[in-house]
Amino acid sequence: MEKYRILLIEDEIQLNQLIQLNLEMENYTVVSCNNGISALQIAQEQAFDLIISDIMLPGMDGLTFCESIRIQGNKTPLMFISAKSSSKERIEGLKVGANDYLPKPFDLEELLLRTKNLIAQKESGVKPLAESSEYTFQSGTVKFDAFEIINRSGETHRLSKKEIMLLKLLIAREGEAISREEIMDKVWGYDIFTSSRTIDNLITNFRKHFEKDSKHPEHFHSVRGIGYKFTA
To answer: In 3-state terms, what secondary structure has residue 161?
Structure first.
């Protein structure tokens, strides 16, 4: 029987080794790293059954990592382990797409139990509440998994993966201005060949599909000196 694979992201070396040892004793295959940038690359190149991640990480924090993989369409269950234990921080973790949140210090037995439960949910096909494959608003529908939209005229159009990822980011952060730099990091990663003009062109296309008057948008707004925001 094939072992379940877990990506462990923790920059405290002793804790990383302790968690990895205990997971391997439970017959899991563990790939570990100690920073968010390396974790993002690994998550893009390999498949896992569960991701366990700290929040305070060098390079890229855990929240940004989680939001980035969700925008990219990665639905692997993710559990945060963090010294940040207030309700505000837990809510923030769940908002960006985490499935569970275990505050430090924690009991290893509890970590192993939560690990088992999250993998069991994945195997049974139970979807977390934060996971949505479709979004409908006043001027149309976005079908994230199908890479399709239904525009304000009722026409169906197929979009590229990057277009869907950008829509997912804007919709997830409705009402919040998102900078071009953040959009480029989370949708295109660290692609040095992508320019902010690419983002502008995609927003123009969104307006053609969803706005009654693209010169006076109701949904896809430019925020001077920052970037863009979406309102339903």
So the answer is: helix
82 and 89 Cβ atoms separated by less than 8 Å: yes
The residues, ordered by sequence, that sit 6+ positions from 40 with a Cβ below 8 Å of its Cβ are: 60, 65, 68, 69, 189
CB 51 within 8 A of CB 7: yes
140/212 Cα distance (integer angstroms):
11
Other beta carbons within 10 angstroms of residue 175's beta carbon come to 9
- Could you give the domains of the chain? 5-124 (3.40.50.2300), 134-230 (1.10.10.10)
Measured CA to CA, the distance from residue 49 to residue 71 in angstroms comes to: 18
Say how far apart CA 225 and CA 180 lie, in whole Å: 9
Instruction: Quickly list DSSP for 46-64.
Output: S--SEEEE-SS-SSS-HHH
Query: Nearest Cα to 54, choosing from 45, 46, 62?
Result: 62
Phi then psi for 173, rounded to 5 degrees? -110, 35
From the list 9, 56, 51, the residue with the least C-alpha distance to 28 is 51
pLDDT in tens, 3-61: 899 999 999 999 999 999 999 999 999 999 999 999 999 999 999 999 999 999 998 99
Tokens matching residue 16: 């990383």
pTM of this structure? 0.67
Q: Which residues pair with 136 in a beta bridge?
A: 141
